[in-house]
Each structure stands twice: as structure tokens, then as C-alpha cells.
Description:
Elements: H1 6-10, E1 16-17, E2 22-26, E3 29-32, H2 34-37, H3 48-56, H4 58-69, H5 76-86
Antiparallel strand pairs: 1-2, 2-3
Amino acid sequence: MRTFRHADERRPPAARRASDVAITRFDHVYEVDPRLMEEHVAQQAIPNWDTLRIADGRHDHLDWMHRHWCETVVSGEQLLAEVEADG
């Protein structure tokens, strides 16, 4: 049984730098460093459980989009290979 403690959900884990522009707080969940967006986008406090729910739903959402809108799905590796070939 999972319990909900409001204070625990409002305090995300410490950010770890993933690149010059990205951080990670949860395994396999990358986000744009909020400091880079604060000037243009108002930041919201999102509970930890909601961040994880959104991340867990990524693949379902992409699968739905592919089924409904795509004729061809191109992998990231394929795109990188094309960019490197053109460069």
C-alpha cells in the first residue's frame, strides 16, 4: 500500500546534472533545467507522483500517436545517422 504524504510529494529529489541543459531527478526522467526556462515559462510545482505518472505514460502516448498519425516511424539512431551523413 502506498501512502501519500503531501510534504514528501512536494519536495522532489535533488537534481543531478545530465548535460548543460538537462537535469534528472528520477531514473530515466530527463527535464530541461528549470533555470533556463524561468524567464519565459512560469514554473509549476508538480507532485512527484504526477511526474512519474507522466513519464510512465510516455510510451503509451507515443504508441497511440504512431497508430493514429504516422505512416512511418523513424528511430533516433536513423535520424542521427542521416544528420552525420549530411554533415
